[in-house]
Every structure is written in structure tokens, then in C-alpha cells.
Design brief:
The protein is an alpha/beta fold. The protein has 2 domains: 239 residues, Alpha-Beta Barrel (TIM Barrel); 56 residues, no CATH class. 35% of the residues lie in helices and 23% in strands. It is built from 13 helices and 15 strands. The strands form 3 sheets. A 9-stranded mixed beta sheet has the order 7-8-6-5-4-3-2-1-9, with helices on both faces. The chain has a 3-stranded antiparallel beta sheet with strand order 10-11-12, with no helix packed on it. Strand 7 and strand 8 form a beta hairpin. The protein is globular and about 60 Å long. The two termini are 36 Å apart.
Length: 365
């Protein structure tokens, strides 16, 4: 698994605008703020200029729906970010919004990677998730991306929606691998408090069903040459998302935009949540930070282990009580490292609760 190169630094830009809010979404996104788009993008550009940070090795435009805003405005923000010559630049795209003109503008501006919100390739599952595109839009988006030289892109999936059978999930995976993607992200549908999904128990996902779908996912993608490198992420060699590796390897990054998070040297902070407030504070020339926390040595090391456990890099074997047969059965140990096996990835949260920093003494029995 690739490691973050020393000196790597990421910039995340949050674009909080959507045409429609999905029932499962708890992100800081809005469907009624189109009148703020230009002001917001200008505020992001000004905010970038206020920070003294290293040249970015990766930039990620997430949301929300970054591809919903006019390409010149997004490019205007990207141009304000100082980047190393080979920086990875990713833009999340809804297949409904993808056009040749849009991707041509991205390519000319230095975008190197796209992430398409596919979720499913089965129409009734898309409807259950509240998505507006159809599978044909996904195929068209991938074709346009390839025609403009995007050799690195991601197809983002969600499994566990109400009414999605195991055969539906296999149909999605067959359709996705037919597109020969270099990277796939696949997330178990999660019930977030305050969402319409949370208020409808009949549509809540079933844990056993999701576990079965994860097993099918892993086998299917491995057969297509995409191996897991983080529990929910699969890639061909060399196509792992460098920006997300920063997160999983506890790197430093700057968050731009409302609700965006940042991390440098153990200090984590987050911006005000609404686009109106963000624009106002930037206009007044005052900080947009809403809160922060600082992890001390032990806390930071434990977090590092928790993040690493989710990846193929694994953790030092001494960080887990491998004398416990229940834990030992969930990892593969090689060269002093413990890496979650398939069953371990299904029970990753439980394994993480047993982590200890390697300097700690095991608890007395």
C-alpha cells in the first residue's frame, strides 16, 4: 500500500450546493442556496489566500455537488491554490451534471481525477436512495471522462438500500466492472440522525445483509483487479486516492469552505457550518473557525493506529492483544504487522476498541 510522502499536504474544498438532498445525507449541503454560489466561490478563493501553507500535493473538491457549480467559478478557486507540479486534483461529480464542456474545463485547469457518485446501477435501488440519475448517465460520464484523458477516476457506491437484493448488488457490480474503473469506493448505507432515512425504520439497512454484500463486493472487485487498500476503497496499483491516504495516514490538510475540517500537527479545527455565515466572516476578514481540538501524544498515537487499522498497511502486531483468540482470528500477521482479514474488516470497530499504543503494557488479567 502506498504511503504518504514526507511533506505531503492536502487542501479540501467543500462545495455545499445540491440539486436534491438524498434521504440518507447528513452532510452540510443545501438545495436552496443557488443565489450564493458566486459569492461563496469568491469567499473560498479569498480564504485560500489568507492561509500560509505548503504547496498542495493533493486537492479535493467535495460536497455537496461540486460539478453543479459553473466550471469557471470552481476553476477560479483551484487557481488560487498553490500546488506541486504533479498534484492530484479530484472533483466529485454527479453523473447528471457531467458534460463534455464541463470535463474539458476541468482538464484544462489541471484536474487529474474525478469521483462519480454512482451509488447503484439498478434503477429501483437508485430511486430508493433518492438519486435522480440513471445507469446510462454513469456510462456516458465515464465515456466522456476517458475521451478527455482522465485515466484516474472513482466510482462511488452505496449498498444496503431498502429493496436492494443480493442479485441487485451483483448487477451493480457487474455493470461497474464492465466500465473497467481504476478505483471503486463502496460504503454501507448508514442511518444518520436527523435524516429522512432515520425517521423511517422500515428503510433501515440490515447488518447481516450488508455483511454479505461486502463479501460479494470484495470477491467481485478482486476478480476485476481492484484490491482493497482501505475498508471501503479498492484500486488498481497506482490508482489509490492520494488525498484520502492523507486522512488515513494522519497527514496534514487545510479545509476551505463551510463545515470543512483541517488538521496540522495534531491540531484539528472546523469551519462554521452554513455558507451564509462563512461568506460573511470572510467578507469581514475574520477567522471562519468554529471550534478546534488538540490531540496529545497518547491520543494522537491511538488515533493513528485506529486509522491505520482500516488500511492494508495494518498496525504493529503489539498494538493488539493477539493472545486473545477472538482477536487473532480477525487479522493476518506478517512481518510484525497485523492486517484485518475479511472477517476482521466486517468487525473493524470491535477490533479498534482493543487497540493499545505499542508503548503501553497489556492490561493485567
Amino acid at each position: 500500500m502506498p504511503h504518504v510522502v514526507a511533506g505531503s499536504f492536502g487542501v479540501y474544498v467543500h462545495i455545499p450546493f445540491c440539486a436534491r438532498r438524498c434521504d440518507y445525507c447528513a452532510f452540510a449541503t443545501w438545495t436552496d442556496r443557488a443565489h450564493l454560489v458566486d459569492e461563496y466561490l469568491d469567499a473560498c478563493r479569498v480564504d485560500v489566500a489568507r492561509h500560509d501553507v505548503p504547496a498542495a500535493t493533493s486537492v479535493f473538491f467535495g460536497g455537496g455537488t461540486p460539478s453543479l457549480v459553473p466550471a469557471p467559478g470552481l476553476v477560479h478557486v483551484l487557481d488560487a491554490i498553490v500546488r506541486v507540479p504533479d498534484a492530484e486534483v479530484t472533483v466529485e461529480c454527479n453523473p447528471d451534471t457531467v458534460t463534455a464542456e464541463l470535463l474539458a474545463a476541468y482538464r484544462a485547469a489541471g484536474v487529474t481525477r474525478l469521483s462519480f457518485g454512482v451509488q447503484s446501477m439498478v434503477p429501483h435501488v437508485l430511486k430508493a436512495l433518492g438519486r435522480t440519475h440513471d445507469p446510462g448517465k454513469v456510462r456516458a460520464a465515464v465515456e466522456i471522462a476517458r475521451s478527455y484523458g482522465f485515466s484516474s477516476f472513482n466510482l462511488d457506491l452505496i449498498y444496503g438500500a431498502a429493496g436492494e437484493s443480493l442479485d441487485d448488488w451483483r448487477r451493480t457490480l457487474d455493470a461497474v466492472t464492465d466500465l473497467d474503473p481504476p478505483h471503486v469506493s463502496a460504503y454501507a448505507l448508514t442511518v444518520e440522525p436527523g435524516t429522512p432515512l432515520a425517521g423511517d425504520p422500515a428503510r433501515h439497512p440490515d447488518g447481516d445483509d450488508q455483511a454479505a454484500k461486502y463479501e460479494v463486493l470484495t470477491e467481485h472487485l478482486a476478480g476485476a483487479g481492484l484490491d482493497w487498500y482501505e475498508i471501503s476503497n479498492f484500486a488498481r496499483p497506482g490508482h489509490e486516492c492520494r488525498h484520502n491516504l492523507l486522512y488515513w495516514q494522519q497527514g496534514d490538510y487545510l479545509g476551505i469552505g463551510c463545515a470543512a475540517h483541517s488538521h496540522r500537527g495534531g491540531r484539528r479545527w472546523w469551519n462554521v457550518r452554513t455558507p451564509e455565515r462563512y461568506c460573511e466572516l470572510v467578507r469581514r476578514g475574520v477567522p471562519v473557525e468554529a471550534g478546534s481540538e488538540h490531540l496529545d501524544g497518547a491520543e494522537r498515537e491511538l488515533e493513528r493506529l485506529q486509522l491505520a487499522l482500516r488500511t492494508r498497511a495494518g498496525v504493529p502486531a503489539g498494538a493488539l492483544p493477539l493472545d486473545d483468540p477472538d482477536i487473532a482470528a480477525l487479522v493476518d500477521v506478517d512481518g510484525g504487522l497485523a492486517v484485518l482479514n475479511l472477517r476482521g474488516r466486517l468487525l473493524a470497530n470491535e477490533v479498534a476498541l482493543r487497540l493499545r499504543t505499542v508503548t503501553e503494557e497489556p492490561a493485567a488479567s
